Amino acid sequence: MKTTGFLIALCLATLSLPGQKRDLKEARIFVTAEKTGQLLDDAGFRAFEILEQPDENYPTIFVDDDITFQAIEGFGGAFTDAAAITFGKLPENARDQFIEACFDPVKGNGYNLCRTTIHSCDYSDEMYTYAEVEGDKNLDHFSIEHDMKYRIPMIRQAIQASGNNLRFFASPWSPPSWMKTNDEMKHGGTLRPGYRQTWADYFVKYIREYGKQGIPMWGLTVQNEAMAVQVWESCIFTAAEEKDFVRDYLGPTLHKNGMADVKLMIWDHNRGIIYQRAEAAYEDPEASKYIWGTAFHWYVGDHFDNVRMVHDAYPGKQVLYTEAGMRGSWRAANKLAKNVIYDLNNWAVGWVFWNLILDEENGPRHAGGLHGSNIVNANLETGEITYNPPHFVFGHFSRFIKPGAKRIPCTSGNDQLIATSFLNTDGSVATVIHNLDQHEMMMQLWIEGKALKSTIPPEGTMTMVF
To answer: Is 92 tagged catalytic?
Structure first.
């Protein structure tokens, strides 16, 4: 099935607080669509009309701003080595343009929650660690010097563009080879028992060294894709092993070093077995007390309800979407809109995609397999940056749903329309609607006895902020 993307944002001129009746007059509309050629285009204002009782046969999105659910932490992408190298090799004007397009909260997508990696991953130009001396249990030779060339300068520029409103969480792909049972960073393997404390200390060293560079860590995941044996950096933790490592080593070590406020997340892989991983950790109170939430990805099946089940069983814990590798196609943009909407409706507190930018070969990547496109690509020969359709679709979430916004009830009377809605801290509402159908559809948004009628293109998406 060929897919397209379409997005509309609606902003009401008159705002109100929860529980107060709104004076709904008009909304501002922005559109992204393949069929119409619009990319976050400003489509002007549209008026609300009085409508006491909607017809159940008319496609309608219903919004209620009197009830609130989870608060949003943020949206963003990943500062991988590949992204940083690509960025660093661009001319200065192109670098400035990219940073503004992604991180400026007024002129750009306003990314405010981003991921980075603890030493190398598959999207690095080489494998490396911060502790290259074998057997260095005290980490006397620990150094982040490698990151000073590309990654840290890129991060600093992004922080500045965001108005210092950018938070970070970090994930390791593998401990150093000398800490592992297979004596290499690739092909899975496990952490040697004798190095569990050293590996916990490694996290602390990393947080401290990045903090010295003006980059505080908001969060950590214990292990990227903890059950995946890969031909690149990878390490296996069963649910029991991850729980025990958090309970006996990583959690206590973070707390002992004054890092109890760092948001520690488990799992960091697909939705399929997310409940089993969460149950194992949260049913052990001595492990659970150190864990903020569960991180997850989208790579094997949808399984959207599994995320909700984790929240319903453990409502005191958070769920955060942490990695989405994607192409730069309209089909990818359509998948992106669908996944973000479903995950937010299933209690995700944020959504972070994978590489912020890649080069014209979709790299660099030491693991190989380069092909296709990314959310943003750069041609290093010409210095030209291409912002692909997913960039604009994602902007309809990140630009209008602000940190601290709370999800509110948002339902659909048509199976082909899915939607999510958030109440921002300034009283505005941001609603995102996606048309799953291959035909243009007349539809309306209904709230407090008034409706705003619009048309959504085939397989399109709408964001409404009012």
So the answer is: no
The distance of Cα 437 from the centroid of its chain, to the nearest Å, equals 26
Q: What is the pLDDT of residues 90-140, one digit of tens each?
A: 999 999 999 999 999 999 999 999 999 999 999 999 999 999 999 999 999
Catalytic residue among 34, 73, 225, 459: 225
The residue count of the chain comes to: 466
For residues 217-229, give the mean pLDDT: 98
Give the global pTM: 0.95
Question: Residue 3 falls within a domain, yes or no?
Answer: no
Q: Which domain holds residue 221?
A: 74-398
User: Do residues 83 and 154 make contact, with C-beta atoms less than 8 angstroms apart?
Assistant: yes
| Phi, psi of 286, rounded to the nearest 5 degrees | -75, -25
Domain for residue 4, yes or no?
A: no
**Domain stops at, among 398, 422, 438:** 398
Answer yes or no: are the C-beta atoms of 226 and 237 closer than 8 Å: yes
Does the active-site annotation cover 233? no
What is the rounded average pLDDT of the residues 30-35? 87
Per residue in 135-180, pLDDT tens? 999 999 999 999 999 999 999 999 999 999 999 999 999 999 999 9
Same domain, 112 and 150: yes
Domain check: are 115 and 42 in the same one?
A: no
The CATH number given to whatever domain includes residue 87 is 3.20.20.80
**Residue of 73, 233, 242, 323 marked active site:** 323
As given in the structure block, the two tokens for residue 283 are 């049913």
Count of domains observed in the chain: 2
